[in-house]
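new request in #modeling-help
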Amino acid sequence: MPTQELLSPKLQERIKELMASYPKPQSAILMALHLIQEELGWVPEPAQAQVAELFGMPPQDVTTLVSFYYMYHRKPVGRYVLKVCKSISCYLCGSQNVIDHLEKKLDIKMGETTADGQFSLVGSECLAACTGAPCLQVNDRFYENCSQERLDELLSRLRGGDSHFPPANVSWQPPKES
Amino acid sequence: MPHPQEKRILFGWRDIKDIGSLKVYREKGGYDAWLKLLKEKQPAEVIELTKASGLRGRGGAGFPTGMKWSFVPNNLGKPKYLCVNCDESEPGTCKDREIVEHIPHQLLEGIGIACYAVGIQKAFIYIRGEMYEGYLSLKKAIEEAYAAGLFGKKIGGSDFECDIVLHRGAGAYICGEESALLSSLEGERGFPRLKPPFPAVSGLYACPTVINNVETLATLPPIFRMGVEEYAKLGTDKSKGTRMVSLSGHVNNPSNFEIELGKVNFKQLIEDFGGGMRHGKKCKAIIPGGASAPWLTMEQHGEVTLDFEAIAAARSMAGSGAIVVMDEDTCAVGAALNLVEFFHEESCGKCSPCREGTQWLTQILHRIEHGQGKMEDLKLLDEICESMLGKTFCPLGDSATVPVSSSMRYFRDEYEHHIKEKCCKVGPGAKKTAGV
Amino acid sequence: MLQSRPRRQENGGGLMSDVTLTIDGQPVTVAKGTLIVEAARKLGIEIPVYCYHPKLAPVGACRVCVVDVENQRRPIMPACATEVMEGMVVHTRNAAATRAREGVIELLLINHPLDCPVCDRAGECDLQDFTLRYGHGQSRFTETKRHFEKSKQIGKEVILDRERCIMCMRCVRFCDEVAMEEGLTIIERGTKSEIGPFPGRSFDSQFSGNTVEICPVGALTSRSYRFKSRPWELQNYASVCNGCATGCNLTVDVRYYEVARFRSRCNDAIDDGWLCDRGRYGYKFISSPERLKKPLVRKDGQLVEATWAEALEVAAAGLKKFPADKVGAVAGPRLSNEGGWLLTRLMRGLLGSPNLDHRRGLAFREGEPLKLTAKIEGLDTATAIVVVGCDPTRTNPGIDLRIKKGLRRQAELICIGENGLSGYADYRVGSLAELSEAYANLPEEEKKGLNYPRPRPWEAGGSTSTDLEKAAKVLKKSNRVVFVFSEDHPVEGLEALAEQIGVEAPHGLLMLVAGANSVGLREMGVLPVFAPGWQKLAEAKEAYSTAWGAFASGEGADYAAMTGSSNPLQAMVLVAEDKLEKKPEFLVVLDLFSSAIAKQADVVLPASSFVEQVMTMTNLDGTVQLCRQALPPLGESLPDWQILYRLAEKLGQKWDTDTAAKIFAQIGSLNPLYPAASYNDFQTEAAVHWSYPQQGKIGTPRADLSGIPVHRPDAAPWMGAPDTGSKVERVSRLLAGDQPPAVPGQLDPRQMATRLSLVLPVVQDPPPVPGSRITASAGPQAPGPSPANRYHAIGGGARELPLPAVQIKQTEAEQPVQEVTEA
Ligand SMILES: Cc1cc2nc3c(=O)[nH]c(=O)nc-3n(C[C@H](O)[C@H](O)[C@H](O)COP(=O)(O)O)c2cc1C
Ligand code: SF4
Ligand code: FES
């Protein structure tokens, strides 16, 4: 079975560099899978087999990782993955409202992707943004204090093609004066 | 702007513009404390000084940091490693994220101090995969520090050398547990490991390893800047200094605050720092140290001060410093279910009591929440907790029982109400019939 | 990938201090580093386990082994993963331990379907047994169980039922730690965890059957055995695999005159508790319809069925017709030691012919036996293993696993030539000559220095090197070097290098001979230029002439000459051998099947397989092992030795060795390699299931023929038809399929299972401690190893428990040659 070459030569180079930065090459596997996901959008099985070969490990040892660590997608996902935090602080501050609102606006259920492939809606455990609850992540960026208005703004900005929204690293509001 | 009642040591420089850049950090005198130690002190002295500062781990267990370092044997002929625990995933906790995003160099300097003290030449920062922004900010800081000769070989003209590798996790709460972190860092499933051997002797790659929380390490530079005696004067006898608390939930002003240990109680924290409860409601329950900490109630524990001993005396724990506040309208069963669901979702599945127990607890609470509970379920819940507590492989399984047992301790009436009346006793769920 | 703790380093001869602790009030002294379960076992105290397996590193995951240890911060500790400490006080039966264990078992059962009636493992399921012994007796779980597709074929032989899996990870750890190859893993996490191979691939490891065997529940079952039997219907017989010369020990499980399965019968010295699939599933030939059942004689150009008397008569007459130097015999390596011995006697003693050899008898060298033979165990402690131009993975899978075990411990692997182990090699070098030269050129002071722990091959990034010098240095580390090679490889160079290194037993040369009993046949004298035991012919002549009446001490034709196209012989006896380019005028064949050669023979005599007789074989490291009889010979077939005995009778000699035991005793009196051999040197300790000694069965041989009433070949006349009348109907096919039938209005049986309450008698008193029973029932202490350490006590190995010494049953071993009645 010829494995389709999914990992570009450049990516393979990057992975080999990473392997060299650890005393034990296998340590680089999580980072390598992140890179693969960045390039392909998800981590398909042939890519798992191929990266296993690169690391000289049995292929099932990669599958076990990809399924253990929830950040890796084993199925294709939308362009924007909206990860809604469901843990305690967000729960107390209304994460269910966020979920309901997004489900309604996107017309999909949690775990699904919109037909146009733009949005995937997933749940997540605590995202370490509890002081900005309820919060979510758009791909790798935080979006906090998600009122309905802010959610609507988010969706319209993203739909409008503003892929830099929400801007990175502005999530931290200095504490408000009481 | 810092809150006027905060005692900012760790966060002393937090609000300086561009403090995340090496240039500004150096201008303020950053890295000087470390470089001075390199020149003037022997590693063993640094460990002694750290012990004297009274600094205790901020990751959860509150173990004295200097003591932890002193357990690392010097004579094994193997490399030693530092693992910086930046996997912050304990629900309610978000202080480490603020540190790495805003004062990354302070963390790096702290890493430098720890490495020098223990004789470590390679540090790994295990950062939670979701914290991409923190990853970028640390990455930039590390690049800057390397370029300035602060890491690598011959640091500050001394013979000391130290490297930093930045490593991203990929979404698993258990990887915050120190031995699971090591497994994950070795490119394996984040399964916790058997102890002994303890990481201090056989940790990463079977070599002696220190694992410290981000906040613990980032506190080191200010401690050495101000002098360990000064720092040790802060706080209480056993809980010295200051610590970050992440205040979240039903308060007006949820935020991270740095407080002096033992000098603030929950009531003050919520009123003075948190700006009081939202919508003028009453506070019902407090989770004082992240999801793993047993609940306290405002009624009984409002006067408990925030330090390791006082919270422990109240049968809870200071944990990660995450303080989650629930108002009077919060259904205890619902909140407990939410917490148990978290542990169910994040159980790694290695040991049976945790894997199966979290599922069963979730199922029963779910049933009670939806009006299908039975009175016997309460006894069953107790017994499942007993079957798990102390029998699981790692503390995650213990933690999973905590929301159930502590909420039942204080709010058993709400559980009974749920079972009898098939709806919540308090809050919006009280009127309508739940479930069905 | 499972971060199990590396197994404790073996006591390398250094001082190993002892630790004394108390378990349930009984003091016990064990070596430092012993785990609590193992210490308890020594006292005969059972601690239930699932994830623990003595051959795998401890993980402490299932938690069923929890015990109460005094003065601990967390008093409830896993006995399988906690090492003993001086003065430790352990309670396995107090209230805290009992409650904790009950709790764990209850939790393990919540997702486990209670479908025991249709589960293949029922009756030998640890979950069933421990639930009965230690469980609540009542399931309080009323929610929905986790569901998966019921059963799924994940490999050629392996079927997985994920619902039944209790995540002990034994199977995964086997693939990871022992087989070290592509296999099973855990997919997902938490309650969603399941076992499986890489998605879309089949679990076709040649060791896959081991995972089925060590699975403590019915999650992994094997296709061949599935739904064929209940364990309590099986009779167990200790035997030895004859798939290759490794000689792995196995248990033959027989159900109503049919082999139901082979299981491993752990022997630490040989197989370490594993079997390869070829051996494990290789039993199907035994009941093959193709087997020869009656003697055949050529009449009018056609082979036709005949009576034994008739066939033997024709054979004897044919052989007598030709001069001795025109008669020869060739044996294949399945032949037993007893058969080989009588073949030598027939040729040299009776017919006076020196023409005898066995397949590739002297291929490795003319004129001398192999020196410096290693023990298989030597691979465990070797610092260097050199695999020379052979492929153990293909030819001797048991050795492959053993080499990997050495690698996990400390050995470095040097491969010469491509083979299944190349991927694990630390160094690959071109030829032995190259390596020897590099070794000779090393400066003297290159000395030892080992690196622990050794990364697994893929952790090292598959690092291989052709650097000869480095490879040669590896040989310098210590004299604990094992060379693994095949018969095709000339041995002179190997021996020279091994001598230079100064290797000592148990290390040295391990020759992967080509057939199960190749070594044994050589030692029985089935060779043209040696007497038994590698004695010089002339020197042996006297002793054998006295014992046998005559002994042809000349050198005869060898295998190549006799089977080649210029075969000079006029009459031949072929035993289990199917190569013959030129048929002599008269040919007698003894075999199980009708081979192409047998079809040309003048007389074909049906032989019995190794499970149908008592016999011994000698494996590649020279261990002599006994196979017990598990079945009556098929049809009219007879053990080879009996055929040869009768043939001798027809040729006019009545030998005194008319039982297998007597033959073996004679071997003992004449063959210097088998001094004073006797069947009583083999003790039996059959079939203690590795999964864990069952309560009351610890050390009690399941197949102890002296106690348990078993089917005895002599009780059931072996030529009679099996008693089909009492055959139990197979398990209902209702649930045998992949999915339970969806009958409208009928409960899904799996749902039913979740509702049933498992009402069991609650065990109140701690069950009796089996230890006392052992001492009571144990026979005289096992005699020490026989002279020259050559007789391997069956199933023995390094067991801690005193084993009852059981004598081989008269009826079985001393089964005399029976009169063949004329039909
Ligand atoms: C289930 C579990 C999760 C944990 N998660 C974290 C975490 O996210 N961050 C952290 O710093 N420590 C976490 N810890 C605590 C660490 O195991 C460890 O005690 C800590 O990193 C030690 O650092 P310190 O001595 O500086 O506190 C966790 C512990 C457990 C049992
Ligand atoms: S399949 Fe069997 S051996 Fe494998 S984890 Fe499950 S219960 Fe254990
Ligand atoms: S935890 Fe001890 S046998 Fe599984």
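bot summary: Confidence is low (pLDDT under 50) at residues 1-14, 446-465, 684-811 of chain C.
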